[in-house]
Design brief:
11 helices; 5-stranded parallel β-sheet
Amino acid sequence: MTPSGQYLEACERVLATVRAQQAAIETAAGWFADAILADRMVHVFGSGHSRIMVEELWPRYGSFPGFNPIVELSLTFHNPVVGANGQRQAMFLENVSGLAARILRNFSTSSQDAALVVSSSGCNVVPIEIAEEFQRRGVRVVAIVSRAHSEASASRRADGRRLQDFADLVLDTGAPVGDAMVRVDRLDTPVAPGSTIGGCALVNCLKAEVALRLTAAGRPPTVLTASAIVGPDRATQLFEAAYDEHAHRLARLYADVREP
């Protein structure tokens, strides 16, 4: 089989794992919808490549307000690779204890909020401590990890605890140990990772289920929609209204910021 054929077969297994978690997806979507209907937000955090899942959730076509994307450039600014702002520094900072608390010090959270924390390994210190801090504040946490990869990896935290230990519900991307899914003849290391496929599928399943619940509650979301579907005037109106709603929701997170 060709490498591309191997990859597509592996992606089908990843998507089968996502599909098998339908009940858990619906539970998480219910928590997220409750937070949005309470005029609060779902905080979404990912470091490293997990940033992709944050951006997939909001803002982009087919998405809507209610999610607070928390992305630190120092942990995710990958394109320089080396030199200033290089990958070595980002991977170091991802395991600095205490950084998570400084990040969340900027937000006034509520027990009506919810959180989604994404980490393929579930073993790096900052995403673990983000989840821990959310739970300490009474915020319900959903984690997305690659379960097989996480269980084969060592936590970078001194007590050995992983992201899953600070989550109220865990979703699995279905990616294998090491993430890469394709073996090439005469190459002793696998290529082509799969966690982004599973992670983005989970994020969009959650998005669709939340949209269903908001609409059923009589508060349909304002969806960023292409002009090719609704025409340029309607698209502009939707984008402007969605960004305004995001600003109003975000303002509440800063309105009562203080020492916890």
